[in-house]
Amino acid sequence: MPSESTEVQVRPGVEGDLEALTTLYNHYVDETAITFDTAIFTPEERRPWLLSHPEDGPHRLMVATEPDTQEVLGYATSSPFRMKPAYATSVETTVYVAPGAGGHGVGTLLYTALFEVLSGEDLHRAYAGVALPNEASVRLHQRFGFQHVGTYREVGRKFGRYWDVAWYEKPL
Per the omega criterion (within 30 degrees of 0), is the bond before 67 cis? Predict the structure, then answer.
């Protein structure tokens, strides 16, 4: 959890973050319906994901760390929205905050940094899917200018039940 006396640092993700990022993501795989992955990953299985987010271009990975310990508090990404070439100016964005770090502004810092680095890219729209219910994520996306454009009903099945996903869109 971020301490009151130090500011959280946000920087591009690097290969040295792979283990911590994998552990953070696996928490959401195991414990929540926030991601529809159903099996945890090893760091080696997650390496291609990390490498698909270089330090430049439209597909970025921003990591928040606690300055004193360098503990990873969360990350935000922009990834391809769809693989067909006509979608190249659209990205899907997401934020994951470490357990215990929520409610301290980490998600806001991550999205601020992500949209700042994306501002110089040839991008037209950002999209975000939010598995429902998730009021914190809905509020975060609305705060950043995302508008609700639709909801896929019972689109994913995890933990023996179906989940809706609300889709949000933001002009870039």
Answer: no
The CA angle 114-59-86, to the nearest 5 degrees, is: 120
Phi, psi of 108 (to 5 degrees): -65, -45
Please report, in tens digits, the pLDDT of each residue of the chain (172 residues total). 454 446 899 999 999 999 999 999 999 999 999 999 999 999 999 999 999 999 899 999 999 999 889 899 999 999 999 999 999 999 999 999 999 887 889 999 999 999 999 999 999 999 999 999 999 999 999 999 999 999 999 999 999 999 999 999 999 9
82: tokens are 């769809």
* pTM (two decimals): 0.93
The DSSP call for residue 2 is: -
Residue 65, beta-bridge partner list: 9, 72
The HSE-up count of residue 14 (CA atoms within 13 Å, CB side) is 5
Q: Are 106 and 8 in contact (CB under 8 A)?
A: yes
